[in-house]
Design goal:
Blueprint lengths: L1 H17 L4 H8 L3 H9 L5 E4 L6 E4 L9 E7 L5 E9 L5 E5 L7 E3 L4 H4 L5 H10 L14 H11 L7 E3 L1 H12 L4 E3 L4 H13 L13 E9 L2 E9 L6 H22 L7 E5 L4 E6 L3 E2 L3 E2 L2 E3 H5 L9 H10 L5 H16 L11 E3 L8 E2 L33 H20 L5 H15 L3
Parallel strand pairs: 8-9
Antiparallel strand pairs: 1-2, 3-4, 3-7, 4-5, 5-6, 9-10, 10-12, 11-12, 13-14, 15-16, 16-17
């Protein structure tokens, strides 16, 4: 009798220490019969859950996250703005998660950390920090990279109504999204957005969060532009620091360079978001049309290169390694693989040192056999960006190299890179100092073969 009465406590302690286990493993570990094991599990309905069908069944201890219920619902938003239930996420002891998909609860998907489709759209970078400042009730660390998985899920479930892509996490974020549908957003005049952008940039710098929880370290904000005739589009606006410091001047140049890089790629067969540059005496703005939004309320599913790989390749691997793996298993098309290889070479040739797997994304619609490469973004000469504190990085461009897997892509990328550096050299919006840098870089690229 004492043995049976202690079984629930022994079961819970084992699951909290070792994580989800099969019934067979638990019976062996705890010395319990199958009936005693299941009686112990049923005795803890709020703490222990049985997952999956008989053959692959797991027993797990629930981990409660502050501010959330035991089950966190997941939704998606269609291009038409309609919401569909995906399933529920449960946090499990000691650190894992499980997705119980709608209509497929007998085949749970276990994850050692946050599911990739959730972690991929978490608040990051500049706007992640603004998110933390704007929601002090969430008690988040000021730097998004310091957030735990539980803090990330809680933040997304409670204030995640406008995440990138089409995922909605949590009942509270679902309700906040429903309120968004009823609101009329402030519309920016497409012909003269600079006054409004000046005000929004000031708000963003002071920590007043507005717009989506988009990633990247560059200062930015979201806005809705009035295109006339009742039309509107959602945009992301990057902006330079205020004033005439080295950092302010350099970022003005780099934002124009980003616009020129996107237009150069577009002219060579790549998809890139529509963009516009606006300049005042004190700031430069790069306005980018969001490809994960359709009209005011519609959304598209977006997954980064890292998320699409779903953890099979080390996070610090290059674009070619990730893309080759995805093409090999049919997740992306051979044509998109060739484009990514060319983008890798183009990035090297224009001194873009920020080629993380979060900086290439794919669009994927339900029923599609493969993902399709999303419009290109964050492509600019980042090696010349100011260092922390705003100083000169002291970077000198030298002839980049490439491996045998990039021979064809390199030859294809060379004329594209030459085109880019030539446009930077003659663009009057670029400072004389950076045009001189572009001339040196262009001469180096011109001499490559």
């Amino acid at each position: 009798m004492p043995e049976k009465s202690s079984s629930p406590a022994k079961l819970l302690a084992s699951l909290q220490e070792h994580g989800p286990q099969s019934p067979g493993a638990l019976m062996s570990l705890l010395g319990l019969s199958q009936p005693t094991l299941y009686r112990a599990a049923k005795a803890l309905p709020d703490k222990v859950v049985t997952l999956g069908a008989r053959r692959n069944r797991k027993v797990a201890a629930l981990r409660l996250i502050r501010g959330l219920s035991a089950r966190t619902p997941i939704f998606t938003v269609s291009p038409q703005g309609e919401v569909e239930s995906v399933g529920d996420i449960l946090a499990l002891e000691p650190t894992s998660f499980v997705l119980l998909a709608e209509g497929a609860s007998s085949t749970p998907r276990l994850y050692s950390g946050l599911p990739f489709f959730v972690s991929d759209v978490r608040p990051r970078g500049f706007l992640g920090s603004a998110f933390a400042r704007s929601h002090p009730d969430l008690n988040l660390p000021s730097l998004p990279e310091d957030w735990t998985n539980d803090q990330i899920l809680s933040a997304m479930a409670r204030r995640g109504e406008d995440l990138p892509g089409n995922v909605l996490v949590g009942a509270e974020s679902f309700e906040r999204f429903q309120r968004l549908l009823q609101e009329t957003p402030e519309l920016i005049d497409a012909q003269n957005p600079t006054p409004a952008y000046m005000s929004l940039a000031k708000d963003a710098e002071s920590g007043n969060f507005g717009g989506s929880c988009l990633g990247g370290s560059q200062p930015k904000f979201g806005a809705v532009v009035n295109m006339g005739a009742g039309g509107a589009r959602r945009v992301l606006v990057k902006f330079s620091p205020l004033g005439d410091s080295f950092a302010a001047k350099r970022w003005r140049d780099l934002l124009v360079c980003e616009s020129l890089a996107l237009e150069t790629l577009r002219s060579h067969g790549f998809e890139a978001p529509e963009n516009r540059i606006f300049q005042s005496d004190t700031r430069t703005f790069l306005e980018l049309t969001r490809f994960d939004r359709v009209g005011l309320h519609g959304r598209r599913r977006v997954l980064s290169l890292l998320a699409l790989d779903a953890g099979r390749v080390a996070r610090n691997e290059s674009w070619p390694v990730f893309a080759t793996m995805l093409a090999r298993d049919g997740t992306i098309t051979p044509e998109d693989l060739r484009k990514i290889l060319r983008l890798e070479c183009f990035g090297r040739l224009i001194a873009n040192g920020d080629r993380s797997p979060h900086n290439i994304s794919f669009l994927w619609r339900r029923g599609d056999p493969t993902a399709s490469l999303a419009p290109i973004y964050d492509m600019l000469p980042m090696q010349f960006a100011p260092v922390a504190g705003g100083g000169d990085p002291g970077y000198t461009f030298s002839a980049p190299t490439y491996g045998p897997n990039l021979i064809r892509a390199w030859k294809d990328a060379l004329p594209i890179a030459r085109h880019f550096w030539n446009t930077v050299q003659v663009d009057g919006r670029i400072s004389p100092e950076f045009r001189a840098i572009a001339e040196k870089c262009g001469a180096i690229v011109e001499g490559l073969s």
